[in-house]
């Protein structure tokens, strides 16, 4: 049995990354390295207004005063910030319709299974595709306009809706927030912006697809979602990158603002290139995601499936400011080979009767390390608030690690916080049961892991759920602990 | 990465004191110990006292305690052979213990420095043991009290001259529980560092009760390090009773090292104290060990209690169980940080960790961090933490049966704490602590009265509001 296990675990290690191709597209790039000039270059390229350039420069000055955080359970060689290209954009012509999109680019998205045309016609999902930091094409704009929904690239929004951007940008994640947020604020290249007007229920699921393509580039995009009073939106995010030997840096910011009675559901399937089986290459994913339930009865729900990236450093959080607001976090994080993940959630309860739920499922295999790190904080004012957290870890193989670092803080007597966590390997009884019924070991493990993650997967919108399930099976089939 | 601030005034004073008085500090030491002290001092220079930036001190603010001016003594400031055993007698009824007393961190006994009984059990002062049993001390002193754990441990390793030394040879069952009492009685602010060393041989067993009490109301800063070696198949029952005055700061670091098949049960009962920080480091250093680490803390006023538990599963087939419960009243602050590390080859580990807290007011604060760090796959580990209030349904049940709100609350709080207290295996001690907890919960007692030492009043009969046997 032990030998079989090793063989099976080896099979997992050989699991291939199928999005690792590279498309030869003509690129516009900024000079290598980071300086005020780089920032001015980016800003000028995008013909940004002065206030935005000032914001970038302020963020850059602040970044210079910071040191890279080292508290996470992650180990990596120092990131050489001066060797990264901070801006890379496909050479752009004015595009009148989808037909004029660079065929290479379309091919890229077809390979990813994100056919802009298909999406447009069949699935009714509005896609904003971001390749190497620049939004390439936003589909479905017209349908959305009918409802007054603004869904565009961040740069376009800066030009077309400067008031909204000025009002909400950096209101949830200020540039002073952390090292990577400051870096992003200084050099962010593009991203998505979405505004749902009062009382509108967004009829389609909005989606952004991120892809790093060019070599030595970092991707720094910024997403801003504003849900006005009584509105609802479901937002999807996916990402891939080519296979490269060097590490690529991705430092994004996602800000969500939910006003009174609004609801935002944010789903991510993160599948950046995780590096090869020796741990070479892969994307360093340092992301700051935060939502603010600003109004009463608002709700923000994060769902994430994390299968990619050499390093994941990501804590989607909710600030529950409005009374009766609700925050949710559902996560499946899979690490294999030499991947490292330090991920979790923060729930900051400020308003009365606020509720939050954290369900985190970690699966580690190979030589990987998978950590859950989360904070639940109840302030004095957050009377009658409630949190329930559950973070389970599944270990497949004896060379990986699974860690849990919850931080729990309570300052009032009427709130209740519960946290529980377990760590174990796949139950031999369950495995035996499946085998006994003629299910092969590989399939049985796929089945058990999917069952284990089901609680989270069922929160994903249907299309993503299918993709996520496939991803899980690809990365884990046949592995026994 | 974190930028180090400069040494605090106290830190500088201690470095200076060390440089000026090396001869005096080293007077009892073998060359091995001198080397360890010097190394510890180097580490302290580097480490400094923890501050708010030190990760595992974030929730415990030690700066106020460190900012005070303390007297530090390199020699006992009183006549030895004070008959402290008679001055303070433990008033636990029917409990036969052997008292080992320290006054202001110095070992005192009328029987001289060291005693050795017929079974070969050696009990006495560490300073004495350094002279008479240097090979034992050299082989253990400072070995598991890792300097790099915190500036306090390093400073203690560098400075501590005295403390309690207990040696139990192989194959000895010590029948009478040993009780270590450290009493602080001084008319000025005082900084105390003592270092206890307990060595339990193979197949032996020991029950140890460690009491920290203060008699006066002066400000004190106590930095105690205790190293306990539990040999193969040996067992230790360890109890820690903490009743300090509200002006005291107690940093209590205990290091346990368990060899194969060893069993440990340790129970920390914190009833009062200005700022108490307990750091327990348990290393399961052989197969098939078992460690039960428990604690209960009942804090009120502006008290602060911080329990840091680190269990290191270094070998396979070991079991550990952590259970900490706390009731936090007024504007008190409780901190719990449990960390279970399961090393790569420590397969078949079972490790459990539970921390439950009841908050009674809106000014009280709880921070809890139950960490798991696991590198082996065939393990069963879990942790749970809750912060909440007294169960409304339980309250309703009791009230519906005619028990008044106040009594019902007391009863439930008592039941909450009893889960830990019921694990005390020395029966008279259990009864005594049980009583103390009940009195403490009713807030009836001043620090002096609830102290295990009846220094001010004679034992008096306690009247209970609820007769538990009738419920």
Number of strands of chain A: 24
Chains forming the largest contact? A-B, 41 and 37 residues
Backbone CA Rg of chain A: 22 Å
Give the overall pLDDT of chain B as a whole number.
84
Which helices and strands appear, and what pairs or packs with what?
The complex is a heterodimer of chains A (481) and B (471).
Chain A (H helix, E strand, L loop, with lengths): L1 H12 L13 E3 L6 H10 L4 H16 L22 E3 L12 H9 L4 H8 L2 E6 L2 E5 L2 H6 L3 E4 H7 L1 H7 L10 H9 L2 E7 L9 E6 L9 E7 L4 E9 L6 E4 L2 E6 L4 E8 L11 E12 L5 E8 L4 E4 L2 E4 L5 E10 L4 E4 L2 E4 L5 E11 L3 E10 L7 E11 L4 E10 L5 E10 L2 H9 L4 H17 L4 H15 L5
Parallel strand pairs in A: 3-7, 6-8, 7-9, 8-11, 9-12, 10-13, 11-13, 12-14, 13-15, 13-16, 14-17, 15-18, 16-19, 17-20, 18-21, 19-21, 20-22, 21-23, 22-24
Antiparallel strand pairs in A: 1-2, 3-4, 5-6
Chain B lengths: L8 H12 L1 H4 L5 H17 L15 H5 L3 E2 L11 H4 L10 E6 L2 E3 L5 E3 L5 E4 H7 L1 H7 L10 H9 L4 E5 L9 E7 L5 E11 L4 E10 L5 E11 L4 E9 L4 E11 L4 E10 L2 E10 L5 E10 L4 E10 L5 E10 L4 E10 L6 E11 L5 E10 L4 E10 L3 H9 L4 H17 L5 H16 L4 H4 L21
Parallel strand pairs in B: 1-8, 2-7, 6-8, 7-9, 8-10, 9-11, 10-12, 11-13, 12-14, 13-15, 14-16, 15-17, 16-18, 17-19, 18-20, 19-21
Antiparallel strand pairs in B: 2-3, 4-5, 5-6
């Amino acid at each position: 049995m032990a030998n079989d296990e090793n063989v099976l675990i080896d099979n997992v290690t050989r699991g291939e990354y199928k999005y690792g191709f590279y498309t030869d597209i003509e690129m516009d790039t900024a000079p290598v390295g980071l300086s005020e000039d780089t920032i001015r270059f980016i800003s000028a390229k995008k013909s940004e207004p002065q206030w935005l350039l000032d914001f970038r420069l302020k963020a850059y000055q602040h970044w210079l005063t910071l040191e890279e955080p080292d508290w996470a359970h992650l180990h990596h060689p120092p990131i050489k910030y001066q060797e990264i290209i901070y801006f890379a954009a496909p050479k752009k012509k004015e595009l009148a319709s989808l037909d004029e999109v660079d065929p290479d680019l379309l091919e890229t998205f077809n390979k990813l299974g994100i056919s802009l045309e298909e999406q447009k016609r069949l699935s009714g999902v509005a896609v904003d595709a971001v390749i190497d930091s620049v939004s390439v094409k936003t589909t479905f704009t017209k349908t959305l306009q009918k409802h007054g929904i603004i869904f565009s690239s961040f740069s376009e929004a800066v030009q077309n809706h400067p008031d909204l951007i000025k009002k909400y940008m950096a209101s949830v994640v200020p540039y002073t927030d952390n090292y990577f947020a400051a870096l992003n604020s200084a050099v962010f290249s593009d991203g998505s912006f979405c505004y749902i007007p009062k009382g509108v229920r967004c009829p389609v699921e909005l989606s952004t697809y991120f892809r790093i393509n060019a070599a030595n580039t970092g991707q720094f995009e910024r997403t801003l979602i504003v849900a006005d009073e009584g509105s609802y939106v479901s937002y999807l995010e996916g990402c891939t990158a080519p296979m490269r030997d060097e590490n690529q840096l991705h430092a994004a910011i996602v800000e969500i603002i939910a006003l009174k009675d609004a609801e935002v559901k944010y789903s991510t399937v993160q599948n950046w290139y995780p590096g090869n089986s020796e741990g070479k290459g892969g994307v360093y994913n340092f992301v700051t995601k935060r939502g603010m339930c600003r109004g009463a009865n608002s709700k923000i729900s994060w769902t994430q499936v994390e299968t990619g990236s050499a390093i994941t450093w990501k804590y989607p959080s909710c600030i529950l400011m409005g009374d009766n607001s609700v925050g949710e976090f559902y996560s499946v994080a899979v690490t294999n080979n030499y991947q490292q993940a330090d991920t979790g959630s923060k729930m900051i309860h400020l308003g009365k009767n606020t509720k939050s739920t954290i369900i985190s499922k970690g699966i580690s295999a190979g030589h990987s390390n998978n950590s859950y790190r989360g904070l639940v904080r109840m302030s004095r004012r957050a009377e009658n608030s409630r949190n329930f957290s559950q973070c389970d870890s599944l270990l497949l193989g004896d060379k990986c690690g699974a860690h849990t670092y919850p931080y729990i803080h309570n300052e009032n007597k009427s709130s209740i916080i519960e946290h529980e966590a377990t760590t174990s390997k796949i139950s031999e009884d369950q495995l035996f049961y499946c085998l006994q019924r003629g299910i092969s070991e590989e399939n049985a493990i796929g089945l058990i892991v999917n069952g284990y993650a089901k609680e989270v997967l069922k929160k994903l919108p249907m299309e993503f759920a299918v993709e996520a399930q496939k991803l899980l099976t690809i990365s884990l089939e046949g592995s026994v602990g | 990465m974190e930028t180090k601030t400069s040494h605090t005034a106290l830190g500088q004073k201690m470095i200076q004191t060390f440089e000026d008085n090396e001869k005096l500090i080293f007077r009892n030491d073998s060359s091995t110990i001198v080397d360890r002290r010097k190394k510890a001092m180097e580490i302290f220079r580097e480490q400094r006292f923890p501050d708010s930036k030190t990760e595992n001190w974030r929730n415990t603010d030690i700066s106020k305690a460190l900012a005070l001016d303390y007297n530090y003594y390199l020699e006992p400031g009183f006549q030895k052979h004070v008959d402290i055993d008679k001055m303070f007698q433990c008033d636990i009824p029917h409990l036969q213990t052997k008292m080992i007393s320290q006054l202001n961190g110095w070992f005192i006994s009328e029987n001289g420095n060291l005693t050795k009984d017929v079974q070969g059990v050696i009990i006495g002062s560490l300073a004495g043991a350094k002279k008479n049993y240097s090979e034992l001390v050299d082989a253990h002193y400072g070995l598991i009290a890792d300097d790099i754990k915190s500036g306090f441990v390093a400073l203690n390793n560098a400075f501590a001259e005295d403390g309690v030394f207990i040696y139990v040879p192989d194959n000895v069952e010590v029948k009478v529980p040993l009780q270590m009492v450290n009493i602080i009685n001084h008319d000025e602010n005082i900084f105390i560092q003592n270092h206890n060393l307990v060595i339990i041989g193979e197949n032996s067993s020991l029950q140890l009760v460690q009491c920290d009490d203060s008699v006066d109301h002066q400000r004190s800063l106590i930095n105690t390090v205790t190293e306990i070696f539990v040999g193969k198949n040996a067992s230790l029952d360890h109890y820690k009773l903490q009743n300090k005055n509200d002006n005291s700061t107690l940093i209590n670091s205990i290091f346990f090292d368990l060899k194969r098949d060893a069993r440990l049960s340790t129970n920390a009962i914190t009833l009062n104290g200005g700022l108490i920080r307990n750091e327990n480091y348990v290393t399961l250093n052989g197969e098939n060990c078992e460690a039960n680490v428990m604690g209960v803390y009942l804090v009120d006023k502006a008290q602060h209690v911080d329990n840091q538990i680190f269990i290191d599963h270094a070998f396979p087939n070991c079991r550990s169980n952590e259970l900490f419960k706390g009731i936090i009243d007024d504007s008190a602050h409780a901190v719990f940080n449990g960390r279970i590390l399961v090393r790569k080859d420590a397969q078949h580990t079972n490790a459990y960790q539970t921390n439950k807290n009841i908050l009674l007011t809106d000014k009280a604060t709880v921070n809890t961090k139950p960490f798991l760090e696991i590198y082996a796959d065939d393990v069963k580990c879990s942790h749970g933490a809750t912060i909440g209030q007294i169960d409304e349904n339980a309250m309703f049940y009791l009230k519906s049966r005619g028990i008044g709100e106040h009594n019902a609350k007391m009863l439930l709080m008592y039941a909450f704490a009893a889960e830990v207290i019921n694990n005390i295996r020395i029966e008279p001690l259990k009864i005594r602590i049980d009583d103390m907890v009940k009195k403490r919960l009713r807030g009836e007692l001043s620090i002096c009265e609830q102290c295990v030492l009846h220094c001010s009043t004679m034992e008096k009969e306690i009247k209970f509001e609820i007769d538990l046997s009738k419920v």
